[in-house]
Amino acid sequence: MQINPFIHAARQGRNEFGVYVAVFILVFIANLLGSIPGAWAMVTWKDDPQALPVYLITSLMLLGFVASLVVLWLCVKHLHKRNPLTMITPTGVVNWPRVLKSAGLWMVCSAVVETATYLLFPDKYQFSLNLKDFLPSLVVAIVLLPLQTSFEELFFRGYLLQGIGSWNLWAGIIITSTVFGLAHSFNDEIEAVGSLGLAMVYYIGVGLFFALLGVIDKSLELPLGIHLANNVYAFLLVGYPSSSVPSSTVWMTTELNFPLMVTQWVVVMALYVLLSKKFVGLQVTAKPTS
Fold first, then answer.
1. The domain containing residue 138 runs over which residues?
2. Rounded to an integer, what distance in angstroms lies between the CA atom of residue 76 and that of residue 35?
3. Has residue 128 been placed in a domain?
4. Which of 48, 105, 107, 173 has fewest C-beta within 10 Å?
5. What percent of the chain has pLDDT over 90?
């Protein structure tokens, strides 16, 4: 069987089971402690929406991801004794322009699908731009959102997928996608969806797409770009009620139409895959290699 260098990057340095357990615990503690300011901000905001500006709430909420990313990076470097960048590519050399191209392609595909949706259902959108909140939110999107999305990709699709996948590829893909879905089960929009099971199908599906893309491309360059573009798009351009992260967007949908949102995401994903060979150099093989 052909070896997938991205997955087998986990075999560099120390890879004992005990090291993985220790790193998992340390990252969990970092996330827990880093999330305390965000939890306080959310409670304060729900009691009085005018008490704190939206961008400050979001900044505090993202601190948990920043702390987790720092701890994960240090653990891989000092406990696993390997280059943390090997969580992105097996060589540790990252093509950052390709990451940005991936983000740009996803952003364009999202805008095309959103425009089509607007033309079909114009009454479902309302202009909501508030420059006083939007400009600071833009800074948050530039500085903190990349750290949030990078942590999720490096932890789920880099660290865990490589670690489990080097033992059994499909177990790695399925387990990490499921854990990724469960990690989003506390999002505020779950209540608006009305079905935890339906929401989990969506989130686990997103995790599967990112995992398969990373395995097929043999790097996280494309998922890193997509995840960032997806979150920036929802954070700055088109938001929806009951979002798990408060934001100041240019447009706001009048309601969270979950079936429509899932349909949009699937169409955007299909467009991205169709255009990815030409614009970001994705080579799709018959099946993922382990």
1. 7-280
2. 22
3. yes
4. 48
5. 76
